[in-house]
Amino acid sequence: MKTQLPAKYYLSHFFELAEFIRSQCTHLLLAEQMQFLEKLTLLDEQSLCTLLRIYSRKPKIVALSSLNYEEIPNLHGAIFKLKQQGLVSHPSHDELDLLLEHLTKPTLLTLLANDELMTTQPDYKKSASKHSLIQLCKQYIDRNHSDLDALFSQFVVNSRSQYYEYFEFLHSGRLSQGDINHQNRFVMRDLGIAKVRGDVSDSLSRFKTLAEAQSHYQLNQLRMQLKQSQSETQYQTLAQALLAINCEDELAQSIKNKLLIRLYKQLKDHDLGFAFELLEHCEGSSEAQELAIRQRYKLGDKSWVEHKLENIIQNPLDDSILYFAEDFLQRKYNKQQRSRLTQMLIDTEHQIEVDDIYRGDVEQGVCEYYQQLGNTVFFTENNLWLSLFTLTFWQELFIETPYPPCNEFDLYPQVLLADCFYTAQHTQIEQKLANFTSNEALYKYVCKNAGQYYEIANGVFMWHSDILEPLKMLIKHSSLASLKAHLLQMTKTFKQLKDGYPDLMVLKEHKLTFEEVKAPGDKLRRNQLVSIDVLKQHGFEVNIVKVSWFNDPNRIYSVVDIETTGGVQGNNKITEIAVVQLQAGEVIKQWASLINPERSIPAFITKLTGINAAMVRDAPRFEEIADTLRALLKGSVFVAHNVNFDYGFIRKEYAALGQGFKMPKLCTVVESRKTFPKLKSYSLGNLATHFELNLTNHHRALADATATAELLIRIQQAQSNKAS
Hints:
By secondary structure, this protein is α/β, with parallel strands linked by helices.
């Protein structure tokens, strides 16, 4: 059953926000902001509801006719009181152009037809576009005519006071540009849709001082203005305002750096000197350093670039800029024997051949390659290391921290946002790592935290039911010193090491390796270079797997067809499954089974398929044939006519059992369209008629699978003939 929100849900959300401001943020308010909050709380309920409804709208002009709510029985009375308090106003003559954008086409036509409002009578057609009518009104209408007052009285200006915007900012830490994003946080929580922290009982202020709050607020205002800016003049104005902001903390400086870099990119083609000045004000930004180097090299300032690169190598801000400087100096100035990237590729690269059916999922292809060799393989990427890191330091990140979550919506640890985890808590971090005297102790601790905090939203990694399996393999088969060294480095440079990790973790005869998979044409990204290099420094074996494709003539195709209780997944279930396997154009195996869907079968489905309740009553449930089906499909290509239908239902059934399901797919509808482009219909029935396929019992699984298998053979023959 869906959760229903009460009629005045937004009112309770306002009082929740107001209580947060009163209890936690009074030191972050100016006197006039506090007075504004008190003014809102003293409004009668109807007036407050009206104001909040206006604030929740995106448009700057709101029609009174759109504020038709049961909780506001006397709208005009509420508007009158709000006007008395100076909280709303009707549009003025100066705001006519803005109002016109919100009028309907009939209203615009009425204005144009009113001779009294026109200084001259324009020529227009009633069929003209709304945009054209607006332009005519802007050009010809008499803006000072008293008759416009009646029109203005039907609308109010959505001023959405900056004070109110500031309150929302103090709660969320970000501006929503006057839309309903902030309110949506509460709504999504109440509906049970959005994940929130369940371990935060009291809300806390996210800012320590008024100056800190103001600097963050100003930065966010400029961020929103930058989204709307389009001209050089606007960018110049924003840049000057940005340079004037003094950042009180590292997070604010990080935000400022990002904005300065964005403005640099907008201004470098217009005023390069000023653009360079923006980069120089990016404190502690390796990205700004790299941009300046690349641009100055392009301009021919090679002496400056060379000197800058050498200085960076001597004293780099981080590993990312170090690797860039080393590589750039080697490539452009030939001053290093070999770049870090080149050396890594030489040391770690090896090549394997993978069936080209995996072109759309190369990692899966490599995974199956290693599994066929008898290895244990996990898809890891970033989640492995992020989960190990978070579960090791959960208390320090979320509980015993000088920067606890400010409210239940703060999923991401504040110390990681500011990248100051080690700086703020180095004593606790060092002590915790020292307490792990064995791999078993570390794994036991990780298991304890995983059990205690399972599915609590954290913003760093994704929970899944078997999260401990890859962690167990990692901890058991790695050096404790290596694990501790990498965890320690993550606390120091989390922003650098939060992504870029290898795709796969492979265990071969008790030896653990990490594999970064690269399909033809793929290159190693900078963040991958950093993470891989740091792993190698800490003693982990990492390989770069270069994939080349081959076409396996002995590839097995599993042609699948299912029948269901209905065409949409929802609550519908499978009633029959059939598999026909092909190899080299020959049928090598057939399998079929009715399935008890454990729900009723609609009459129209029985009429279509011939499958009724009596037929499936004693049939196995999906869970009883799941292992048989998985074993049958293993190592083959999943083929079906409209493959996503059959694949989706089967994947859903495995998901209900807590199991994953992933295979390479091929759709005979898609292949038929490509191979036989001029046919009138690509339904299985029509294709069977056209190609004289064996389809004697349409809409039964084995019959449809058999016909689809024959169709696949025809497609492959045609493709082979065309290729030759």
